[in-house]
Amino acid sequence: MTEQQKAEAGLLYDANNDEEILAKRIRCKDLCFQYNQTLPSEAEKGRQIMSQILGRISGNYMILAPFWCDMGENIGIGENFYANHNCVILDGAKVTFGDNVFIAPNCCFTTASHALDVEQRNRGLEIAWPITVGDNVWFGAGVTVLPGVTIGQGSIIGAGSVVNKDIPPGVIAVGNPCRVLRKIMPEDALRYRQTRTGGII
Known about the structure:
Strand content: 25-35%
Distance between the termini: 62 Å
Structural class: alpha/beta
Low-confidence stretches: none
Mean pLDDT: 94
C-alpha cells in the first residue's frame, strides 16, 4: 500500500516523508496563501482559488480569510456553508459538511492524530479518521473537532468545546470534552426578540 492508501484506510501512515503527500500539501498551502492574500473586494478571484482548494463545493458559500487546510481535496461543503476567520481543517481524511453549516471564528477540524508510541511518533507516523457534519449545524467560536467524529444535523456546538465523540442530531452540546447539554426545543424559536412588519414581537 502507498502511504496515501494507508491514510485513506485509517491506518498509521508516514505523513512527513512521502513525496505524493508532501506535494499535495505544498500545492494546497500555496493556494491557501494566495486565497488569504486576496482582497475582500476581489470576491470572484477568491472563489476561483477556493475552487482549486476544496474537493467539493455544492452551492453558495462564504469562507473568510485566513483559512488553512492540509490537502483541500478531502473537504466537501454543502449549500450555504459559512466559515468565519481562522478556520483550520486538517484533512488527511475526508471532512464532509452538510448544508447550512455555520462556523464561528477560530475553529479547528482535525482528522489527524499522532501515534501514541514515541518511536512511531518520532518517525512521523500519523492516523487520519474522517469527520462528518450534518445539515444545519452551528459551531461557536473556538471549537475543536477531533478525528473520527460525526455531528448530527441541527445540533449546536458551544464556544470553546472540544468534540472527541459523536454528537447526536438536534442538541446543544458544550464543554471539554463536549457533552450534550439538552435537546433543541420548539420554544427556542421564541428565545430572542424578533421584528416584523408593524413592530417588535
